[in-house]
Amino acid sequence: MPITQFLERNAQMWPNDVALVELNPDIKVPRLTTWKEYELIQPLHEVASRQEITWAVFNEKANRVANMLIARGIVKGDKVAILLMNCLDWLPIYFGILKTGAIAVPLNFRYSADEIEYCVKLAEADVLIFGPEFIGRVEEIADSISRRRLLLYDGPGCPSFAEDFVSQTANYSSIAPDITVTDEDYGAIYFSSGTTGFPKAILHTHAGLMHAAIMEQKHHGQQKDDCFLCIPPLYHTGAKMHWFGSLVSGGKAVLLRGTTPETILKAVSDEKCTVVWLLVPWAQDILDALDNGSVKKEDYTLDQWRLMHIGAQPVPPSMIKHWMDYFPNHQYDTNYGLSESLGPGCVHLGVENIHKVGAIGKPGYKWEAKIVDEHRQTVKQGEVGELAVKGPGVMVCYYNNPEATKEVMDDERWLYTGDMAIEDEDGFIFLVDRKKDVIISGGENLYPVQIEDFLHTYEPINDVAVIGLPDKRLGEIATAIIQLKEGFTCTEQDINDYCKKLPRYKRPRKIIFAEVPRNPTGKIEKPKLREQYGGAFLVASENEVKK
What we know:
Elements: H1 4-13, E1 18-23, E2 30-31, E3 45-46, E4 50-54, H2 55-71, E5 79-83, H3 90-99, E6 103-106, H4 113-122, E7 127-130, H5 135-145, E8 150-153, E9 163-164, H6 165-170, E10 186-193, E11 199-205, H7 206-220, E12 227-230, H8 237-249, E13 252-256, H9 261-271, E14 275-278, H10 280-292, E15 307-311, H11 317-326, E16 331-338, E17 343-348, E18 362-363, E19 368-372, E20 385-390, E21 397-398, H12 402-408, E22 415-423, E23 429-434, E24 439-441, E25 444-446, H13 448-455, E26 461-471, E27 475-484, H14 492-498, E28 510-513, H15 526-546
Parallel strand pairs: 1-13, 5-6, 5-7, 7-8, 8-9, 12-13, 12-14, 14-15, 15-16, 27-28
Antiparallel strand pairs: 1-4, 2-3, 10-11, 11-21, 16-17, 17-18, 19-20, 20-22, 22-23, 24-25, 26-27
Helix pairs in contact: 1-2, 2-3, 4-5, 7-8, 10-11
């Protein structure tokens, strides 16, 4: 059955219970309120720092979205892209799309205009629903993407190149459309990228979405009285699939737009959150704030907080041990996954296995895993090889890219992750390296080739290699090893100034002027660079932190 049936069940069983809360602790500018039932556009006013909707209203909103899209010509199998920051509208829009039988296509809110255009066209999206934060970017590409596509704007002051989503949706029925959706129907397209940075469209079925929901609840035991704090962006499979545990259990979830230790702990305290999914930088920030006294644990009500889990990047065991010094009664879990496996959980540690901190764990609910050599033959226990997974959440394919699909998935539907791993004597899997060169910094994927290609446009640079170096807070930081042309001079500040043309999160955080080593075939020897600079940089970084 499709996951929309969980929403309809919750609306029937607990119509007046709070489903979603949106917290905006730093709102300072006026903005239109989120659209409400039976209302058209409202005047601009100060957004409340806290807003909520019940399960009944959530379901009615989704039904209105579905009926509006159907009236505008959307049929089963069409694609509807979502480009929004986390807000109360996000999930009702997502579920409204699913109720039409169309395919939901979430877009990364960090995408540049060119990346938005590329992904919209790659997924063959028929509709783009976007928010006020993206007016400038969408305007740049509106002439290109609006051909045969509907641009719908969710916010105040609708731009001339789009139609008003808010007023249109409010006029449609709040009764669910009569559309049959089966497990085999396609439900969502998410985006991932390889080391080249070119996004791939990952196609999933409704059966995969349903399994992700059931698996999350089984892994973390969410009950009706649990409250999940969701901080990461909902376009990401990690955030949404963890929220699916609240959907299955009927519990409340809080969408927090803020990542400081104070805002996180206050949200946990005020909303009585019991389950919190953190990225490594946020957990480290909380520990640092507790260590230096800028935040005091006793100022918050935290006794109800039962589970802290982490994903999206490797987790330092020392950080979790320090976490347990402050929160000795917390359950802890870490989850491993990919967008190709519908996010976290194909391998997970399990709350009962904190003694194995450092491992990503064992295969998750109804998943299998194996570690293979370069010929895809299973290696002996204790040997390093590539991690492969198989289960109900494996993608259908890379949409419109059969060659890339064959590279990572065999005829038996084993998905080869590109991550190098080892299995210990107890069957726990540990990641040891990444086969690809993707840098994971603060839970975000950075693609070295993109940054290298940009730096190659700077005249003084002869050659450049971008690698990830360890960082206590972010896990890794992008580091550019730059080889200058003969006769040219350049400073670190010059490079930093030039990189201001890049989005902030893509800018190298460390510049090293040195020769870039290449092997006889012309490939950059990045393992050598990581070995050369990694250890020394980590020591220097830790010493700086201690100061």
